[in-house]
Amino acid sequence: MDWRATFGLGCCMSNRARQWLLVLSVLSLSACSTPDTTQAAQMVGRFHAAYNGGRIDLLAGMTSPAFRAAGGPGAFERMMDKVRAKLGKVRSAKQVNWRVNVGTGGATTLLQDDTVFERGKARESFVFVEDHGHPALNAYNINSPDLL
User: Fold this and answer.
1) Are residue 125 and residue 95 in the same domain, yes or no?
2) pTM score of the predicted model
3) CA 82, CA 147: separation in Å to the nearest integer?
4) Cα-Cα-Cα-Cα dihedral of 139, 58, 143, 34, to 10°?
5) What is the domain-level CATH number for residue 126?
6) Which tens digits make up the pLDDT trace of 63-121?
7) Strand-strand pairing, 106-117 and 120-131
8) Are residues 3 and 70 in the same domain?
9) What are the DSSP calls for 33-80, one per residue?
10) Domain count of the chain?
């Protein structure tokens, strides 16, 4: 049995229609390209600038609604105040890893930086999700023996 007959495509679809179907398929796939990490990397720069300026309140404004709901009011700000007291300001940061996952719920971008602070070093992980077309911090992790 011919598959075209099974799906009803062989007898009624002209070559021209098949060509248009192919073109439309290619165009729709090209519209689903993977987002780049540029916006997320810019957000990390803004994060570090706000942190260095002591504007911990601005850091909370960069987070997603899910992030804010998970920790409760003020939890993130208190944690970042402790990080700043222990490690000091950011001196430099170098991106060492990135990953973008695209699914039906949108894109998730992970960036990892090796960060040098005034009083130590750390590996920072930033997870961003799309929130109304802009990246929003959905998770933050800092790993440093200097925090102990």
Assistant:
1) yes
2) 0.76
3) 9
4) 40
5) 3.10.450.50
6) 999 998 998 888 999 999 999 999 999 999 999 999 999 888 888 999 999 999 999 99
7) antiparallel
8) no
9) PPP-SHHHHHHHHHHHHHHHTT-HHHHHHTB-HHHHHHH-TTHHHHHH
10) 2
